[in-house]
Write a structure and sequence with these properties.
Layout lengths: L2 E3 L9 E3 L3 E2 L6 E10 L2 H8 L8 E2 L3 E9 L11 E4 L9 H4 L8 H5 L5 E3 L2 E5 L9 E5 L3 E3 L6 H7 L2 H12 L7 E5 L3 H13 L3 E5 L3 H9 L4 E3 L4 H9 L4 E6 L4 H9 L1 E9 L13 H7 L2 E4 L7 H13 L9 E6 L3 H10 L4 E5 L1
């Protein structure tokens, strides 16, 4: 079958091959036919080595498709079911799951160290234990979440990661209050979803901050009340908050420099929500006096900061009600052969979300 493979960490191009086989099918597993997958910035970060991932590997974790076969012991799923891919399934038994913090379950991360593909030359890993830049994939049954018939595959794919992450940051983690002021730094797919979450929550001012003009323009269409470049952010803070700072600032880039900017533009007693996934050697620093004196809450948000199954259902309900716009987030569509063009479009900021159709 066809799949897009990264041979070594640090390479910036994928090779589309037709000699890849999905392996590992058996008890507790399902085989999926991927129909649509989104390109998330985490895929690029794994390719560059910012996020840890063994290679060779197949990127992609934001996918949807159909169940081809189910292994022994799998209940609630049958061949032909339409599903989205959950890259961080909850085991239900670990301390995090028992506390209700299923987004912190480590069982899914353990899957990343087990290859679920092979080629004539050896094993191939799937990113985050999945790997959706391929026609078929074998995953644990918990990774396959049934979706209603009225949800298109491309919409379901976005809900599988970027939409859930961004909406959840605003709704679950930060719990944005109605009438508040919000700034979102980084307006790709996750940032746009964060903006939509803040709008759903009733924020009065939502300032989008991004260096790319097309993304700033898009942010206004998705609910931002103003969109500025990073150089204009200080002026927006002065005009909108009289220099005090925003009630909530979301960092959706994954870099310490932008996290520091976010911290400095959060008002005393306000909330900095860190949504971007960054590198292990990139350290965010605050001094002990400002940490105490300013009483700013620093809240990381992992996969939307809540139970992902409930978050999926909420995203679908909001989409059906017209409260969030997911179709317009897909700015580009490609076949698998065009994956490298899609990667370039993401790196330059030209795309919000690219849908890879398989």
């Amino acid at each position: 079958m066809r799949a897009a493979v990264l041979h070594e960490i640090g390479q910036d191009k994928l090779e589309v091959l037709d000699d890849v086989e999905a392996v590992g099918f058996g008890p507790g597993k399902v085989r999926l036919r991927i129909r649509a997958t989104g390109l998330c910035h985490s895929d690029v970060s794994a390719m560059s080595g910012v996020l840890p991932q063994p290679a060779p590997f197949i990127p992609g974790h934001e996918g949807a498709g159909e169940v081809l076969d189910v292994g022994d012991g799998v209940s609630g799923l049958s061949a032909g079911d339409r599903v989205l891919v959950c890259w961080l399934p909850a085991c239900g038994a670990c301390p995090s799951c028992k506390r209700g913090q299923t987004q912190l379950c480590l069982a899914g991360f353990m899957n990343a160290g087990t290859p679920n593909f092979k080629r004539p030359g050896g094993d191939v890993f799937g990113f985050a234990g999945t790997g959706t830049f391929t026609e078929e994939v074998v995953v644990g049954a918990g990774c396959a979440v049934p979706i209603p018939d009225d949800v298109p595959f491309e919409i379901a794919a976005l809900i599988g990661c970027g939409v859930t992450t961004g909406l959840g940051a605003a709704i679950n983690t930060a719990q944005v209050e109605a009438g508040s002021s919000v700034a979102v730094i980084g307006c790709g797919g996750v940032g746009i979803s964060t903006i939509q979450g803040a709008r759903v929550q009733g924020a009065a001012q939502i300032v989008a901050v991004d260096p790319v003009a097309s993304r700033r323009e898009a942010a206004l269409r998705f609910g931002a009340t103003e969109a500025v470049s990073p150089d204009e952010f200080a002026d927006a803070k002065q005009r909108i908050t009289a220099g005090e700072g925003f009630d909530y600032v979301f960092e959706v880039v994954g870099k310490s420099a932008t996290a520091r900017t976010a911290y400095e533009n959060t008002r005393r007693g306000g909330t900095l929500c860190v949504v971007g996934a960054g590198a292990m050697d990139d350290h965010f620093q605050v001094n002990m006096f400002e940490l105490f004196f300013d009483e700013k809450r620093i809240l990381p948000s992992m996969y939307g900061g809540g139970d992902v199954l409930r978050s999926y259902e909420r995203a679908i309900a909001l989409w059906r009600a017209g409260r969030i716009d997911l179709e317009s987030m897909i700015t580009h569509r490609v076949r698998l052969e065009g994956i490298n063009d899609a990667l370039d479009q993401m790196r330059t900021g030209e795309s919000l979300r690219t849908c890879v159709e398989l």
